[in-house]
Write a structure and sequence with these properties.
It contains 12 helices and 21 strands. It is of the alpha+beta class. Strands 1, 2, 7, 8, 9, 10 and 20 form a 7-stranded mixed sheet that branches. It has a 7-stranded antiparallel sheet with strand order 17-16-13-14-15-12-18. The two termini are about 20 Å apart. The structure holds flavin-adenine dinucleotide.
């Protein structure tokens, strides 16, 4: 089979690339080669099924990696509002600038994209797992894991990174490109829950609390801090504000501590006064009721049990001033030693990938003419909050458009 443009990977960036390529050059035959049995599986899982598809507060400090001028590329492409309104999707945003489809449904986003692909006559070739590519004269030949062949004039690699392999992204294309001589930056999780010992979070599974998370290395140097909702599983600390700390694991493995301030609106002495007041109000009750006026039951019991190390059936009246000071200290800085990142299946975004020096501002390879890259495959990643999908759409759009422009002379 022959196509003018083959896009390897039918994820967010690959679909955007197909749309912009076809819009730029309607006569081109554009094929998406996707290893899964359908395109866009990961899109359905984004934003907990709500698809946080962009962010209105795009800024350079929200992006990381060796790709040059990530924000410049994003700003030159249509904004999520423009791109999605052209697909019939209305966007809304919250106070942090996070954009969602008005439907709050990722399925409606994927469906609108597929309707657009069909109207543009883009061909979806599912079950085609690219395992090699080779130059054949002026064209390229892609070979699938089961030996099918696909020839084309241009290739856009949009196959993602290592994060969430259950949606098709296992890093195989990245390894193939590295073996072909592309420089790659070290791979590690960028947006992920952080693991701690199960004993440290015993009793907290399922707890959600708003607070300020501070990451420190070797218990001293403050690396980053962020506000948001903190969540716990049986062996990890999670939530958007924690996800963004994952990237520091690479540098500070084994040395990272999270300090959670779970009453960020109060000072330590205000919280001390609050507990002293409770000691009066609830003097006849047991210790497990000491903090239930401030936190959900499991968290309240956890704090008292772990800080005071006393039987929980003792009375609130027996709590000393120094114990109250210790409790207020724990509320303002609840510490967890981080033992690692969650496994790839729980990771949302990959840091690392094809090095920025391998791609120009049109997303074309600086090594091989006619090859383009976009999305998470490149060494470009953003913070949690819509920044990664916005990069995927924008870089995909840029790659698709420039790839089509480069073909214009040839197809005439
Ligand atoms: C659970 C979860 C929630 C997320 N939520 C958000 C969110 O709300 N907002 C946000 O901004 N970001 C979110 N992200 C991150 C975001 O989804 C990704 O950054 C984005 O999808 C990357 O787009 P991409 O096109 O580069 O790669 P992907 O979307 O990963 O697509 C790559 C495609 O390539 C295919 N592929 C891989 N190898 C081959 C091969 N050899 N041959 C053919 N096809 C291949 C894959 O099957 C896949 O379909 C989330 C990620 C996860 C896992």
């Amino acid at each position: 089979m022959f196509a003018d443009i083959v896009i390897v990977g039918g994820g967010a960036s690959g679909i955007a690339a197909a749309i912009s390529a076809k819009e730029e050059l309607p006569s081109a035959k554009v094929v998406i080669a996707e290893k899964n049995d359908r395109i866009g599986k990961k899109i359905l899982a984004t934003g907990n099924g709500r698809c946080n598809l962009g962010n209105r507060k795009i800024a350079a400090e929200r992006y990381h990696g060796s790709v040059k001028d990530i924000v410049g590329t994003i700003k030159k492409a249509p904004s999520p509002d423009e791109f999605f309104s052209s697909l019939g999707i209305l966007c809304v945003s919250d106070e942090q600038g996070r954009m969602y489809p008005r439907s709050e449904s990722a399925a409606t986003v994927l469906s609108a994209m597929r309707i657009k692909l069909a109207s543009l006559d883009v061909q979806e070739m599912c079950g085609f797992e690219v395992s090699s590519y080779v130059k054949k004269g002026k064209d390229w030949e892609l070979v699938s894991a089961d030996g099918q062949k696909l020839s084309c004039r241009r290739i856009i690699f949009a196959s993602g990174g290592y994060a969430a392999p259950q949606y098709g992204t296992d890093g195989s294309v990245l390894r193939m490109l590295r073996d072909s001589g592309y420089k790659t930056e070290k791979i590690c999780p960028a947006v992920a829950p952080l693991r701690t010992s199960p004993d440290a979070v015993k009793g907290l599974k399922g707890v959600r609390v708003k607070g300020k998370v501070t990451a420190a290395a070797e218990g001293k140097k403050v690396i980053a801090s962020e506000y948001g909702e903190i969540q716990f599983t049986e062996n990890s600390v999670s939530g958007i504000c924690v996800f963004n700390m994952a990237r520091y694991m690479q540098q500070y493995e084994g040395k990272l501590t999270l300090c959670l301030d779970i009453a960020p609106d109060m000072t330590e002495s205000e919280f001390e006064d609050y507990i002293k007041n409770i000691r009066k109000q609830r003097s006849g009750l047991e210790l497990n009721e000491l903090l239930t006026g401030a936190f959900c039951k499991n968290l309240a019991v956890y704090l008292v049990k772990n800080t005071l190390q006393r039987p929980m059936n003792e009375s609130i009246a027996s709590v000393t001033d120094s114990e109250i000071a210790k409790l207020a200290g724990a509320v303002k800085c609840l510490k967890f030693h981080i033992t690692g990142c969650s496994p790839w299946k729980n990771v949302q975004v990959t840091a690392g990938g094809i090095h920025g020096s391998c791609v120009d501002d049109r997303m074309e390879s600086t090594k091989e003419k006619g090859i383009y890259f976009c999305g998470e495959l490149l060494d470009a990643d953003g913070d949690c909050g819509g920044f990664n999908l916005e990069w995927a759409w924008a870089s995909g759009y840029t790659a698709g458009r420039n790839c089509a422009i480069s073909l214009k002379g040839e197809l005439r």
